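Teaching note: in complex prediction, the entire set of molecules is handled at once rather than each chain in isolation. The prompt given to students was simply: 'Predict the structure of this complex.' The entities are:
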Amino acid sequence: MSLPLAVLALPFVSFVLLAVVPPLRRAGRVAGGVSIAATAVAFVCALATWQGHLEGEQLVPWIPGDAGPMATVGLLVDPITNAMLVLVTLVSLLIQIYSLAYLSDEPSPALGRYYTYQSLFAFSMLGLVLSPTFLQMFIFWELVGLCSYLLIGFWYQRPAAARAAVKAFWITKLGDLGFVTGIVMLWAATGTFEFSTLFRMGAAGQLPAESLGLILFLIYLGAVGKSAQFPLHVWLPDAMEGPTPVSALIHAATMVTAGVFMVTRAQPLFALVPDLVWLIGTVGAFTALLAASMACVEHDIKRVLAYSTVSQLGYMMAAAGAGAADAGFFHLLTHGVFKALLFLAAGSVIHAVGTNDMFRMGRLWHGLPHTGIVFIVGTLALAGVWPLAGFFSKESILAAVWGAGRTGTFAVLALTAFLTAFYMFRAVFLTFFGHAHAGGHPHEAPWPMRGPLWILAILTLVLGLAFLASPPPAVEAHHGPGWLGPFSLGLAAAGLALAWAMYQQRAIAPASFSRVLAPIDFAARRRYGIDALYLGLYKGLILGFSKLIGLIDRYLVDGLVNVFSALSLRSGDRLRRIQSGQVHDYVYGVAFGVLLVVVFAHWWAR
Amino acid sequence: MSLHGYLTLGALVFAIGLFGVVTRRNAVGMLLGIELMLNAVNINLVAFSRFHADLGGIVFSLFTIAITVAEVALGLAIVIVIFRVRKTIEADRLDLLRG
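The expected output is the structure of the full assembly:
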C-alpha cells in the first residue's frame, strides 16, 4: 500500500512545505515548481498503482473503544479509486502547469498562495477517493469544500468573488449537514463507518430496514450539495468568479465529482433502498435538463460550461438512479478529461480577448487556431460524437437508463443530449466563427498553456479510440438496443445543425425561437427564479427572523433592563432624602431602632 | 436597695443622656449626653455584678470607663478640628454628609 500512500502524501508534503516556509511560498514560481513536481510524481505513482492493480484495504484503529475501535482510518484501493487517482493527479498536474502561464501577471506571494491551495486541494481530493470509511471521507469532503472556497475566492479583493466563495461554501454546507447527520445515524445504527463492513452487513440483510431510507437520503443530500444537483446547484455558476484554471479543477476532477464518487462508492448501500435510487435518478435527470436549458441562454462562456457541468452531473446521477453507477462513474472520468479541456480552452480564449461575453467574441479561429481545434474536440466529446470519449460514456448511460425501463428519464436525457450539442456549438460558433467583434489581434497563449490543452485533446481522442478497440467494463455491461448509437449521434447532429443555422448562417433568428418558447426563455434567463427564491427566502426568513429578534432585544430585553434601571434610579433618589446629614436625625433613627428591638423582644420573641 | 432600684436609676440616667444628645445643638453638649448614657450602662453592669456576685461586671465597667475616656478625648479633638475649620460646633450646621 506504499504507492497509493505516496500518491496521497506527496501533495500533502508540498502543501506543508509551502504553508510553513513563507520564503518558499513568496517565491511564487518556485512554489509552483514545488507543487507541480509533487503532483507529477504523485501522477506517476498513481499510474503505477493503476497498472500494478495494487488493490486492497488497510485499516488502522483511530478512536479506541471498549469493544474494538470506534473508528478506523486507512486506505481503500479498488478499480474506481485507481481511476480517480489517475484522473485527479493528471488533471491537477496539467492545470497547475497551465496556471503558471495563466496567472503569470499575479504577484509572487499570491501565486505562491495559489499553489499552496492547489496542493491542499489535490491532497484533499485524493484522500477522499482513498477513504475506506464514511468518517474519513467526510473529513476530506470538508477539506475539499474548504479548498474550493479558498480558490473560488482567490481574488478576494473582488466583492463578487468573495461572495461567490461564501455562497459555494454555504450552499454545499447545507448538503453536508445532511451528510454528517446521515453518517452519525448510520454509525448509531450499525456501529461502524467502514464501507466493507457496511456492504457485508447490507448483503447479509443486517442493516436496519426502517431507518436506512432516511439515513441514505441524508447522506445523498451531501452529494446533492457537492455535485450541484437541483435545488442546490446555484453555487456552481457563481463559482466562475474564481480563476479559470480553478473552475477547470473544480468542474473536472475535484469538488463536484466528489458527490458522484460517493454515490458510486456507496452504491451497494443505495441499492437497498429502491425508492431513493428512483429519487436520485429523477433529480439527476431534472437537473440535467434544467441546467442545459439555462446554458442555452447564457452569454458568459464560462457560465455555459458551468451549466453544462451541472447538466452532465445530472446525467451521472441519472445513471446511478438507473442502478448503473458504473456507467455514471465512467462518464465522470471521460467528462473530467474533456471538461478540463473545455475550461482550459475557454481560459485561453479569455486570456486572449479579455472578456467572458461570447457575443463580444467571434472569428477567433484565425487568431487562436490551436485553442479553436482543442475547443472543438472538447465540444464534440461533450456532445457525444463518435468516436470521442464522451460518446461511449454517454451512450452507456442512455443504454443503462433504457435497459432499466425508465422511459421518462430516457426521454429527458435524450432532450438534454440535444440541448447539450446545441449550446456547445452555439458557444463554438459565437466564439470562433461568425463576425469579429473584439478589437486588436488576439494571440495564441504561450506553450505552458497550449501544452496541457493539446495533451487533454489528444487524450480525449485516444481514449475514444481505445474504448473502440477494447470496450471498458461499463460499456460492456450496458448494451443498448441497436438504434441507440445512431439515435444519440442524430441528437448531437441535430443540435449542431440548429446552432449552425441560428448562429453561423443566421437562417433562423434566435429571437424568433425565444418568442415561440417565451415562457421557458423568460424563466431560463432568470435562472428559473431559484437564485431569487433563495434570496427571497434569505431576506424573508433569515432577515425577518433577525428583525424579530432585534425587536425583542430592543423592546423586551432592553425594556426590562431600562425599567429596572429607572426603578433603582428613582428609588435611590427617594432614599437619598433620608440621608439628611443632620446628626440628630440619625440619633432619632438609632433610638427608634433600639425601641423597635425592645418591643420586638418583649412582644414577639417570648 | 433592690436591683430594680439600680436598674431604674440606670434607665433614668440613660434616658436623660439620650434626651441631652437629641436636644443639644452644641457638639460638646452632645458628647456630654453620650457620657451620661455610657455611665448608665456602667451603673447596670456594677449593679448586676453586685447582685449576681460576679466580678466580671465590675471588670467590664472598668474597661468601659477606659474606653469612654479615649472616646471623649477623640470626640473633643474632632470637635476642636471642626471648630477650626468651620468656625462653629452647632450640629445642625454640620450637614456635609447630606445625601
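Point out the following to students. The helical segments of chain B are 3-23, 27-52, 56-86. Chain B has one domain: 3-93.
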